[in-house]
Amino acid sequence: MELKMPATQRDQLLALGSVVAIVAIGIYFYYVWVPNGKIFAEKQMRIDTLSAHNNLARIEVARGTASKFKDEAAQYGGLLQAMRTLVPVANEVPKLINQLSTAARTAGLELGGINAPTIISGDVFDTYNYRLTTTGSYHNLAQFLTNVGSLSRIMAPMNVALTPSAPKPSQRQIPGQQLLDMGFDVQTYVAKSSARAP
């Protein structure tokens, strides 16, 4: 079949308008309809998933398990509160250093030095590493590390290095005991104030 070109100018304009309309419909379909159809399908799938979860929750509530959920929520709240007692905020760090000194004195030791902390920033909390030194007998050093481990906040002794200590005139030498110099890091975690709940 042979296509004839429209003879009159009116027919030519109508044919041109038809072609432009078909091209516009094609552009709309490929650039607007198809991408929005994918978004609509994703949203519909999300709505169907949420509806299914809501129906399951209604069934669970009808069975009487709502009290179980409340109990679990209370238990998780208690665990969260316990974590908040283990991880200090920034203004509690000087108190923790004081607790380290007290732990050393309880074990019969004196801290030789505390270096400025190395701070590793995180999303929820920052990690503070302190380098400490002390000198004492093996048993006193072990007692000190035990005291540090039993503090109310997380204070983890790490990288412990023991070396025999040279006798010093100011130190009382106990016969049969070798004094040791101990260098170690203490790591603690400090909660960021914006991450803590009111």
What does this protein look like?
The chain has 198 residues and is α+β, with helices and mostly antiparallel strands. It has a domain at 90-191: Ribosomal protein S6/Translation elongation factor EF1B (Alpha-Beta Plaits, 2-Layer Sandwich), CATH 3.30.70.60. It has helices at 9-63, 66-86, 93-106, 138-149, and strands at residues 111-114, 118-120, 125-136, 156-164, 180-191. Strands 1, 2, 3, 4 and 5 form a five-stranded antiparallel β-sheet that branches. The longest helix has 55 residues, at 9-63. The protein is elongated. It starts with 8 loop residues before the first helix and ends in a 7-residue tail after the last strand. The mean pLDDT is 81.
Largest sheet: 5 strands, antiparallel
| Rounded Rg | 36 Å
Helix tally equals 4
Question: Count the strands?
Answer: 5
> How much helix is in the residues?
40-55%
**Average pLDDT level:** 81
CATH-derived architecture of the domain at 90-191: 2-Layer Sandwich
CA-to-CA gap between the ends? 81 Å
CATH superfamily of the domain at 90-191: Ribosomal protein S6/Translation elongation factor EF1B
Structural class: alpha+beta
**CATH topology tier name of the domain at 90-191:** Alpha-Beta Plaits
CATH class descriptor name of the domain at 90-191: Alpha Beta
**Could you say which overall geometry the principal axes of the C-alpha atoms support?**
elongated
